[in-house]
Amino acid sequence: MVNLNDVNSKLLKAHYAVRGKIVIRATQLEGQGKKIIYCNIGNPQALKQKPITFVRQVLSLLEYPALLERAETALLFPVDAIKRARLILSHNPSGTGAYTNSAGIPFIRKAIADFIHRRDGIPADMNRILLTDGASKGVQAAFTLLTNKETDGYLIPIPQYPLYSATIELYGARQVNYFLDENANWQLNESELNASYSGAKKKGVTPVAIAVINPGNPTGAVLSWENIEMVIRFARKHKLAILADEVYQENIYGAGLEFHSFAKVMHDMGETEVTLFSFHSVSKGFLGECGHRGGYLEIRNMPDDVYAEMIKLQSIGLCSNVDGQLVTYLMVAPPVAGDESHELYAAERGAILSDLKEKAEILGKGLGGIEGMHTSVPQGAMYAFVRFDLPHAPGAEPEKMAEKEREAYEARRDNDYCLALLEETGICVVPGSGFGQRPGTLHFRTTFLPPKDEIRELVEKMKKFHAAYTAKLKGA
Question: By three-state DSSP, how is residue 38 classified?
């Protein structure tokens, strides 16, 4: 029988806080009848967001094509949904149960190239686009390609989405942290990047790529054009590839803000030497189709012989799941004005994004108004990374602790806080130490995906809990 000593040591070291011990405890409590407000993961449809009608209508017809004739004669579905299903079947007559090309169905890759061209006004090559099982598989593919030696390093933002730290650990590479600037709406700081790079080199680590999440997870930040330009110049200077995680590009709420893709900024800069991996997904935005595991990876500035290795990597896994490919197609090629489904599609899209914006404001203003908590209204994505103050235990002197000791001390504090919050209120959030945080600070990440009444309930419960928890520590 395999025991823990036989398990891959890299796997044992990898951590994924979003589904960690606190979430396991939440599931146990829910099984005991306690109401849980799940704010730990960006899983919209699990939190009562309804799927987009057009997407599910077309998928239904594709999964069971025998419905097509009945749908036409009985007017079960809009005419354009039926036509779209027939169009897809004409391009993919083998249906959803057969393997596709390793890179993905060609006409879908062409549709993604057209989507990028419409979005950014720049050329896009379908032969540099791979369909993936969500953005996560695209990220892992890039790591597989780029990791060559144990001393290879990846610059990742702190705080970060733990997919990055876990993948670095699994692949035997080195994590190089760079802190986002909390006081400047979590933008990247050039001097911080330079210090992180120099520090890695002094430790014998050779950075090969920099990961950037825009809009930010867990921060909710939206990067400015100038900030992205700075990152591209930095990558060129140090011969780094860029991993641009852009899955929240539809989720922009801040007034006057807009999404700028790394591809667009790079094109306008005339940059042709920096390799760019851009990731997108059907799980976020307004679709929330997490369970269908659809997404794509676009690559720029990569020689043909290197790209051939990416195709070989995709071939090893045969292909991404077909339903995910189809939902990705429907994301990038939605109904247009004049289509029967367009009005409902636009209304559903608008309602979801408007609801998210309103919930971001309720959460940001509510938590930001609690004494001892610090956050603003999230500008984008689906999260807030909330800083909170706690008194130290009697005799604790973290400023005198070694780095590892201090990290462990702070991780215990935010984990204890989040576990107590769950036990007492039913609110499930993720400790900031699971994402990384600047030494001497404590955070938790929360989504604002639950219904508005639950967000308001969360704010009120959090206010009472934080006051009581802090008072208890002071009296200890």
Answer: strand
Domain ranges within the chain, ordered by starting residue: 4-48+347-474, 106-332
Secondary-structure class of domain 106-332 per CATH: alpha beta
- Would you tell me the crossing angle of helices 21-31 and 403-425 to the nearest 10 degrees? 20
How is residue 52 annotated by DSSP?
P
**Listed range (15-19, 123-127, 169-173) with the worst mean pLDDT:** 15-19
What kind of fold does domain 4-48+347-474 have according to CATH?
Aspartate Aminotransferase, domain 1 (3.90.1150)
pTM to 2 decimals? 0.89
Q: How far apart are CA 142 and CA 241, in angstroms?
A: 10
Residue 76 corresponds to which tokens in the numbers above? Answer: 């079960």
The SS3 of residue 83 is: helix
% of the chain beyond a pLDDT of 70: 95
Question: Any idea which residue has 């006057």 for tokens?
Answer: 256
Query: E strands of 51-191, at which residues?
Result: 129-132, 152-158, 174-179
CB 466 within 8 A of CB 388: yes
Task: Give the sheet arrangement for strand 430-431, strand by strand.
Answer: 373-374, 383-388, 443-447, 430-431
Residues 208 and 49 sit within 8 Å (Cβ to Cβ) = no
Residue indicated by tokens 């990558």: 235
Q: Which residues contact 274 (CB under 8 A, 6 or more apart)?
A: 232, 235, 236, 240, 241, 242, 266, 301
What's the maximum distance between 2 C-alpha atoms anywhere in the chain?
Answer: 78
- The sign of the dihedral angle between the CA atoms of 159, 160, 166, 171 is negative
Q: 390 φ, ψ to 5°?
A: -135, 140
Q: What is the pLDDT of residues 209-234, one digit of tens each?
A: 999 999 999 998 999 999 999 999 99
User: SS3 of 458, please?
Assistant: helix
Show the tokens assigned to 284.
């976020």
HSE at residue 298, side-chain half, CA atoms within 13 A, is: 26
Are the C-beta atoms of residues 199 and 363 closer than 8 Å to each other? no
Run of H or E including 444: strand 443-447
Task: Give me the sheet containing 129-132, strands edge to edge.
Answer: 129-132, 295-300, 276-281, 241-245, 206-213, 152-158, 174-179
201, 180 contact by CB (below 8 A) = no
Cα–Cα distances in Å, from 37 out to 17, 414, 446, 453?
Answer: 17, 19, 10, 11
Q: Quote the pLDDT of residue 216.
A: 92
Give the residues across from 252 on adjacent strands. Answer: 380
330-352 pLDDT, tens digit each: 999 999 999 999 999 999 999 99
Q: How far is CA 105 from the centre of its chain?
A: 24
